[in-house]
Automatic annotation (TrEMBL):
Originating organism: Kribbella albertanoniae
Superkingdom in the source lineage: Bacteria
Protein name (Swiss-Prot/TrEMBL): NAD-dependent dehydratase
InterPro entries for the chain: NAD(P)-bd_dom_sf
């Protein structure tokens, strides 16, 4: 497959490129060339900015995977250029698109956040993160029809990624794992490698690409089991406890993604590999917010 990756040199994007090369795909990267520019020297690289994707008008690909589409303006521009140059468009979206944050078991038909009146489509703020993802999904569906896919994930765990990096670091150094969320807090995540493999599939429409719901206590037990004699768990590292925003978002139905080919490895394997990565001298990146 001729694959175009928008981004591809940090976090989940690195996993996508690694998986694509492993599977023998012909990969082209389009990014600004400022993040990890030495990665993947064997891959064709096109340097450019999302605000001016005109360089993409010189190629054709079977699929584009959009890892860097945060601004609505940027996604609109890439869609216009690639409309007749790609077979399908897979967009990395978020579970943050859902308007209902409390009802458990929502599938992809759940109501989505509205676009705020008067909001700019060329600026990024955390308040606009969810609505921007919704609007990008909508414009891609309008442009590409059934050739568009929106992959909605939450926490993505694994090397190069910040999520649960504090747990991996604590276990690697023999320190206490901390959680400001209570033991009963529900949570869903996905291993970055499993999500990368899923993104390479022939997809259409929206998918909740998340793992099964666990409580924080269940997840902590799985992670602590991968090292001998782990330090006691610290459930109160801060004065005020918090809930991961709106726990309904961590009880989503992932049946459609599983049916389409999402494969999920055990929590223990994710934890063991993350700890080993840190023990090899790597440092998890800081969270984006």
């Amino acid at each position: 497959m001729r694959l175009l990756v928008l981004g591809g040199t940090k976090n989940l994007g690195r996993h996508v490129v690694e998986a694509a090369l492993r599977d023998g795909h012909e990969v082209t990267l389009f990014n600004r060339g400022t993040t990890n520019p030495g990665l993947f020297p064997e891959v064709r690289r096109m340097i450019g900015d999302r605000a001016d994707p005109s360089a993409l008008a010189a190629g054709e690909w079977d699929c584009v995977i959009d890892m860097s589409g945060f601004l609505v303006r940027d996604v609109r521009l890439s869609a216009e250029v690639l409309r007749d140059r790609v077979g399908r468009y897979t967009y990395m979206s978020s579970i943050g698109v859902y308007a209902d944050r409390t009802t458990p078991g929502q599938d992809e038909s759940g109501g989505l956040l509205p676009w705020p009146v008067g909001a700019p489509d060329n600026e990024f703020t955390m308040d606009l993160y969810g609505p921007s993802k919704v609007r990008c999904e909508s414009l891609l569906a309008a442009t590409f029809g059934s050739r568009a896919a929106a992959v909605r994930s939450g926490f993505v765990v694994g090397r190069y990624n910040p999520d649960f990096g504090n747990w991996g670091t604590a276990l690697a150094s023999g320190n206490r794992m901390e959680s400001a969320a209570p033991p009963s807090q529900p949570v869903q995540y996905v291993d970055a490698r499993d999500l990368a493999d899923f993104l390479l599939l022939e997809l259409s429409g929206p998918y909740n690409a998340v793992g099964p719901t666990r409580t924080m206590a269940e997840l902590a037990a799985a992670w602590r089991s991968v090292v001998p004699d782990p330090a006691p768990m610290d459930w109160a590292p801060t004065v005020d406890r918090f809930h991961l925003n709106d726990e309904g978002l961590f009880r989503l139905d992932n049946g459609r993604a599983l049916a389409a080919g999402l494969r999920l490895r055990p929590d223990e394997e994710t934890a063991r590999d993350y700890v080993a990565w840190v023990q090899d001298g790597n440092i998890p990146p800081d969270p984006p917010h």
